[in-house]
Amino acid sequence: TTSQTIISDALLPLFQLYLGITESVFGLLGLTLNIVTIIVFIRLGLSDSTNISLTGLAVANIGVSLTMMGYGALNNPLVLRTVSNVETIEAVRLLLLGIPNVLFSRIAGLITAFISLERFLCVAWPLHVKSLVTKRRTISVIFGVYMFMVSSHVPIWLANQIGQRLNPQINVMVVGVISSQNAEELRNVTITITVAVQMTSFAVVAVSTLCMINALRRITEWRKVVISQESRKEKQLVKMAILISAVFIVCSFPSVLANTVMPFFKEFRVQGREKNFFMVSGGFCFTCQLVNATLNTFVYLAMSSRFRDNVYVVFVCQTRKR
User: Which parts pass through the membrane (predicted)?
Assistant: First the structure.
């Protein structure tokens, strides 16, 4: 007798079809919105440290959206049926789309953590932090995040490469994934770093968000006595950072939960009995990260009148009447 699984082999293609279409649609939407975001922030000027951080985040979100759009298309059962060499598709999906998607997702997570932490510190110790967080230092941090995450993914690309290999089932040379002799050790290096980065980013964003909410209450109380243009701007920036952080927390939670429970459930992995559930869960986590990459633009539209005005100018080509 065969033991029951949460998702059967018969149901798996239906989930893959749904996830593939969703990932492709949201990927295209996220790509478009983040390109618009970068254009607007360039128009607003990159002299402000917050604009620099948000532009760096938008670049990472473009990477998330672009790779996920391609991944969703190549993971669609309707597409796979038209392909003779599935191994080649799987190699492209893993090395050129899946791994880069995780890379950009972790970059986005670290930048979100930096934004939320910076915004909290600016409220808690404004005089000290505003002189500390300069344009040059912000650029250095964003650049450092990209370099660190790219270098952390070098081992997994050394472990797996695309090339010709013998398929023993059909005894034919096909283009697929070629693993090095120490592939397991190299993969573990990258996986350990990416999981640690995700958990750290999630924790920093969660704690900073709670602290920002408390700081926002103090700003509100203070504004009852002192009202200034600077205090209004500061409050709006804190609110925007809280919304960006909240979206990140909600969208990252499924992936954080999956990484937390995996060590305790041996069958919940790609070689385990619940491999179908693992694959669908992974697809759902990818989709949540994609939603996070898409929603940030709507947060900017809701919270920043200058951002809205510039979007209007870019698309309507005239100044918005108030």
Answer: 17-42, 54-74, 94-117, 138-158, 189-216, 237-257, 277-302
